[in-house]
């Protein structure tokens, strides 16, 4: 079943094609530790957004590899965009904003982003 999700106010929503993940990644880098992301990565073409382009703001820092996207109205960050190690465009889905996913059932993989 595809994964659907949204920000809190509903201005930003998405459908991610493919099966719902049973794992997620947490990261200890400067932004992930503040945001509390539970991340799932997928090819960017699997992500279908339904929101106005001006509903979101993008925050970037350091090497500007990742577009940290969040809703201008409620501040939630349902997804981001970036480039994988192989150069492919990737979507980073914040499973905390996903519908119908049991977050406590996810197998969590910890990523040491702080050491990069
Ligand atoms: Zn919102």
From TrEMBL:
Keyword field contains Zinc: yes
Listed InterPro entries: CENP-V-like, CENP-V/GFA, Mss4-like_sf
Database matches in PROSITE patterns: CENP_V_GFA (PS51891)
Domain CENP-V/GFA: residue ranges: 3-112
Pfam families, per database record: GFA (PF04828)
Keyword annotations: Metal-binding, Zinc
GO MF entry, a single one: metal ion binding
Entry similarity comment: Belongs to the Gfa family.
Protein's name according to its UniProt entry: GFA family protein
Species in which this protein is naturally found: Sphingomonas tagetis
């Amino acid at each position: 079943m595809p994964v659907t999700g949204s920000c809190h106010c509903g201005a930003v929503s998405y459908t991610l094609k493919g099966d719902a993940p049973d794992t997620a990644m947490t990261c200890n880098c400067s932004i992930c530790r503040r945001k509390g992301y539970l991340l799932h990565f997928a090819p960017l073409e699997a992500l279908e957004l339904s929101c106005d382009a001006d509903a979101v703001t993008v925050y970037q820092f350091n090497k500007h590899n990742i577009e940290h996207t969040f809703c201008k109205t409620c501040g939630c960050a349902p997804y981001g965009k970036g480039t994988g190690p192989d150069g492919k465009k990737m979507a980073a889905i914040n499973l905390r904003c996903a519908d119908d996913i049991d977050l406590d059932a996810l197998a969590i993989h910890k990523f040491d982003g702080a050491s990069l």
